[in-house]
Amino acid sequence: MGELTNNIALTCDDENRRGGMRRVWVANKTNVTSFTAGVGIHTYTAVTMDTTADNFYEIQSEFETSSYLSEGSIENGSALKATTVTLKSPKMEKTKALAIQQLFESCKVVMVFSDYNGKAFVIGYDEFLKLDGAMKVQVSEALEEGLQGNNGYTLLFTGKAAEVAREYTGTIKVSTGTITPATA
């Protein structure tokens, strides 16, 4: 059980914050072994994958259409959070459809995402639930009737968490090399 040992202070930088998810990477939960928790701070500093061949894969979405929400609840004295990430990918077509179908058929995923404040976060894994908090994706497709109507995919990821999302300060291996998500 946690004891209070820190203040929650606001600085001038907090007044100039930005919302929005910038970039998103996912890995099959079966390919993630663990994350390394930072000492004394609420971070992860590294991820260990099952093999050196395992990667994270980027999911790009339209500007200002991605969101992350985590809603907490307390039942029988235990705190738990339902996490959701929504991503929109425009234009239904075969290349995206193949990748989305693979994601749809995957077990569950662990996600690392960056924001417009130069931070990255891990969801789908925490120190209590480990990989039991991984996220499942629901896929919706829309091709509206009007010429200017919606044409694309909506990906809704849902999972559980038993702690607040940890900031990620390390690197991840992606299909094109190794990157630092917070600065990528």
Report the end-to-end length measured between terminal Cα atoms.
Answer: 36 Å
In DSSP terms, counting alpha (H) and pi (I) runs of 4 or more, how many helices?
A: 2
Helix and strand pattern: HEEEEEEHEEEEEEE
Instruction: Outline the low-pLDDT stretches.
Output: none
The shape, in one word, is globular
Helix content: under 10%
| Major pleated sheet | 7 strands, mixed
Beta-sheet strand percentage? over 45%
Count of DSSP strands: 13
Characterize the structure shown.
By secondary structure, the chain is mainly beta. It is 9% helix and 46% strand. The protein has a seven-stranded mixed beta sheet with strand order 2-3-11-8-7-1-4, with no helix packed on it. Strands 5-6-10-9 form a four-stranded antiparallel beta sheet, covered by helices on one side. A hairpin with a 2-residue loop joins strand 12 and strand 13.
